[in-house]
User: Fold these one by one.
Assistant:
Number 1:
Amino acid sequence: MTASDTHRAIDAVWRIESAKLIAGLTRIVRDVGLAEDLAQDALVAALERWPESGVPDNPGAWLMATAKHRAIDIFRRSERIERKHEELVPELRERQETAVSELDAALDDDIGDDVLRLIFMSCHPILSREARTALTLRLLGGLTTDEIARAFLVPEPTIAQRIVRAKRTLADAHVPFEVPRGAELSARLSSVLEVIYLVFNEGYSATAGDDIVRPALCEDALRLGRILAELDPEEPEVHGLVALMEIQASRLRARVGPSGEPILLLDQDRGRWDHLLIRRGLAALERAEKLKGANGAYALQAAIVACHARARTADETDWRRITSLYDALAEVAPSPIVELNRAVAVAMAYGPAEGLELVDALRSEPALRSYHLLPAARADLLEKLERFDEARVEFERAASLTRNLRERDFLLGRARANTNDI
């Protein structure tokens, strides 16, 4: 492998392994800030050594072992040397390359998932809602502060400050590394669901990089959602979120073309949709509705994607029902992005002119100023209205705002399709 190939491999390994690595280290050192620092040290070591030695057969275990060695060095210089040294050194000697898998099997309760523990730790009520979500996306989603800032539509320094303060707060409060039970579980559940779905969304539509989708993030989010559904089976919004993710995940294979380019929903080959995931999603949605959760934010979004899943062709999509579901969602969980999605649904149900009027009303919304899908949606509607010069300008603006290279190329291609000489 060339050095650039190795660096790409390291980036891929980090995206896949970082959440498990940080979670496992947090269980050992009981300090989420220190755990992330140790994980970053291991990443730096990989960047230094792997270009020469090659990527190891079990890169996750290599990173964990390296981070633990670093932890031992730190504890040797601390007052806790005796206790921590006794815990870590024998483990390193015995487990070596199989450290990660064996530790997972040795967990001491019925949840058996360090990542889930880390989510609940990061979503402790001692933190603000914004800090909880930003921290968890950083630790478990493997997202950069820039990517998180784009997901929240706020400046990057704001996110960086939230993350630093959140880690300090958790450390000072000695928040336990565990999944809560009973009333405390219910109190933290909404923020946990929000984080899981934000992680899923980053996998479903990557905000940056060379790929449109990051399936590993979707799989992690789905796994955590399914665990939560077993942990709290009477909570309708858990099933609503699982339904939403299952149905959206069913379209992953159809969302990307042979050259990595994005394929819009209405242009997708529905034969490539995973119908097992669709059936699972529809069953989860039915379960949420039976628990009287039909009007929950996740259940409403699941009902929207279910309309697409049930339509055999794009032309059979019930856009009027989708519009009414967005009306309900705007009441339950109002946001500029919900309004933008509603405007697109109105355009599909009642014509592009009506949709464009709603989109134009959102152009002054501060939270959408750097959101590339606003000009992209506007450009699409202008194109349908044969206002090609205006559409081209909006597609170019959308391309300038996205950080995803595939999406940028796609938007620039649509801009070129709206030039005067075509």
Note: The longest strand covers residues 208-209.
Number 2:
Amino acid sequence: MSEIDPSTHADPASAQRSRRLAFAEQELRLISSLVLLIGLGLFLALPFVLSIGSVVFLPVVTALVLTVILSPLADKLNGWGLPNALASLVSLLIFFAILLLALALILQPATVLFEDVPAMTEQVMLRFGELREQFAWVAQINEQLAELFDNDGEREVVLASPSLIEELAFATPSFVIEAVLTLLMAYFMVEARVRLRQRLLFGRSSFGTSIKAARVLREVQDRVAAYILTVGAINAVVGVVVALGAWALGVDAPVMWGGLAALLNFLPYIGPIVMVVLLSLFGIGTSETIFLGLVPAAAYLGLHTVEANVVTPSILGARFTMNPVVILITLSYFTWIWGVFGALLSVPILLMLTALFDHIGRPNLVGFIFGEPLFATEILTAERDPAAS
């Protein structure tokens, strides 16, 4: 009897599997390209939509972030025997009291120092005038360049802008309305957290999907809440150290500077820079020399260097480590959309998105350019390895 070569029967199946694999790869790449284009379009169009509709979207996003932050506290109070509605209200009142206390520590001394701003401005100009005299040769060069490019026939028209009081008068009613809407939405979202968890667990057709959805919700909540609480505690310590340092250096209103340092430290990179600038201007405006005026700013810069590079990374660990470039992009993105409030919300939003991508998979943008799949998938792996199926 002649033996049958098994390769004659394996070749057609192998060729069919290769064609099916190539078709699956092309289909997956086409779908990935469409997803990438849609995501890019949303990324470019979203700022204009969110900026125009900031009255609607900003309170919603702020309430969502507050819900994620306050849900663990509400759960703790609920576990101590408080009803869900009362626990949600108490957690929101605790946050509101802390916020009012922080603002009172800053605004009350700031209003007193605001009266000394003209004198400090004059002092700063005097110090910089003295510094400019030491570089008189630079001024002479500027004068010569100005004579060369001088145009006497042109006139500059300056349009009158509304004063600070007028801007505050127009902005206060809308701010109060948005603040009330935000607090109301935050309360109802925190109060509805239990029902949301129950729907995620029991409202899915698949038990595995229910477990995964509940796990994603818990991961987002735990990560953002743990980050905010940990960073808040670190910033509170930084504020106390800055207040004690300002008191030791004889700086006016040390409590205000401590509270300002604690709040600005929530803004990565930008907040400490603003703090250094404010301390420099205030120090120069109240000191006899520029060198003495820069001492508070230099002391704060040294404290921030130790805190940002030693203390915070050792406490937070690798779980909350984020790419500085991604942080700056997110910070500038939401600052462009919503200003200061967008800057404060940027890091919590980034943490929520990071937690979501950790579960659903992060897009492989660089690899996609060179032919790799945009998202990790097991379909092609199973096709390549028939023994695994």
Note: Residues 56-133+174-388 form one domain.
Number 3:
Amino acid sequence: MAISRDKKETLVAKMKENLENAKMTVFAEYQGLSVADVQALRLLAREAGVSINVVKNRLVKVALQDLDTYKNLETSALKGQLLYATSDSDEVAPAQVLDKFAADHEALGIRGAFSGEGALLAESEVKALAKLPSKNQLIAEVVAQLLSPVHDTTNALSGNLHGLLDGVEAKAQ
């Protein structure tokens, strides 16, 4: 069934907005996934703050050409039935969501990504990004590293204090 011109313009505008706000857009081939599988993927993505869009590649190319960041981007990789995962808050979340889902569903194949800076990333680069810890995990690790000397100092001081109190208590008896 053909899509009306107004609907196409709406889809292009929505995709343009998603690409403009996205820190990372990962595209993957989904041919062979059932409707239930795609719904499960959308649920998993929603929980991670990622949006999944299924848009014709031709319309995505039009949206890319309208954005200065992606204007000179090579779009020959946009072939087949592709879905687009975007996140405006986390650079690696779309890659992680699709990689996690692809581990259980062989029909989903990551094909590449567009970075927020306008670079085209290959499949291997996207899979490497998917293995990185999430933004929240990295922040937690940095905070733990920063607090480590504080914890060490308080533990050392509390040990001396306990020793002093034990000595005073033993002397009092």
Note: The first helix runs from residue 5 to 21.
